[in-house]
Amino acid sequence: MPDNQTTTRKAAALAAFQGLEHEPGVAKPDAILTADNVVRRFGGLTAVDVGHVEIQRGSITALIGPNGAGKTTFFNQLTGFDTADAGSWSFNGKAMNGVPAHKVARSGMVRTFQLTKALSKLTVMENMRLGAQGQKGENFFRALIPGSWRGQEDEITKRAEELLVRFKLDAKSEDFAGSLSGGQRKLLEMARALMVNPELVMLDEPMAGVNPALTQSLLGHVKDLREQGMTVLFVEHDMDMVRDISDWVIVMAQGAIIAEGPPDSIMSDHRVIDAYLGAHHDAPLSEEELQQQLHEAEAALEAEAAEEEAAK
Ligand SMILES: Nc1ncnc2c1ncn2[C@@H]1O[C@H](COP(=O)(O)OP(=O)(O)OP(=O)(O)O)[C@@H](O)[C@H]1O
């Protein structure tokens, strides 16, 4: 991709947001996805309660928010993996509520999934083939049975091979997905989503568990999606990544959208700071955070012990 093309796409994305108010639900010049009054309750808990939101075509938009804000649940509603209690949303002007996940994916809106245990036991190529179904995977193992592919098989394999080359996973094609490094898994998650040739790619924590050495390469791949004309919406906790690649940031807290704006202004928005601080003060640590703290403490103790050893 020549540099001037790269600059053009990025510039076009930024221009689209110029002059917009930094308010939740603000209208975009060319929305690829629009959602209204989407509600999802789990018993007494309202996990999602989004009044109105629009995603600008051709941009990279980050969806951030403290743990439990409802980001994943909202992703699941939009992509047909879970049923909303209320609300409507449309993709490219077409109503999508009630449409099952594989049809949503085939219509051009696809979300990535972190590799599950079951998918780890399949090869990289098998994962790619499942991606062509526009599915999460577990219920679609029959798609792997030889013969069930018929005429599509060649075409699907060819597309998978091309994508694996692009994501530098072609040498791993016959390896089990479970044997890949954290960064390679993220690449596979992205590559398999592209099997349906989507217009809107929704990435679920694309940087989680990635070795810092691979960060730039992964960021490059995400930016590349926009350079190829796709729209990207991603959920991420890594604020460096959010700052680095997003054209626009949408913030959720307690199920609702509480702020929108360009990355720099969003990071200093008092509503956003309050939401994060509130979450950290009020909520007990999640299992993941607790584990993280324990790992850090262990690593610090080990380092101290090693220093003492060296000093003897
Ligand atoms: N299947 C479920 N059953 C009951 N409660 C659920 C279910 N899925 C999500 N929740 C609850 O809904 C709320 C929103 O969760 P969700 O996972 O969407 O948040 P999130 O913003 O994606 O969080 P994180 O950043 O930690 O992944 C949380 O309180 C969560 O416990």
UniProtKB/TrEMBL annotation:
Residues 33-279 form the ABC transporter domain. Keywords: ATP-binding, Nucleotide-binding, Transport. The keyword S-adenosyl-L-methionine does not apply. The keyword ATP-binding applies. One of its GO terms (cellular component) is plasma membrane. It comes from Nonomuraea soli. This is Branched-chain amino acid transport system ATP-binding protein. It comes from the Bacteria. PROSITE patterns: ABC_TRANSPORTER_1 (PS00211), ABC_TRANSPORTER_2 (PS50893). Pfam families: ABC_tran, BCA_ABC_TP_C. CDD domains: ABC_Mj1267_LivG_branched. One of its GO terms (molecular function) is ATP hydrolysis activity.
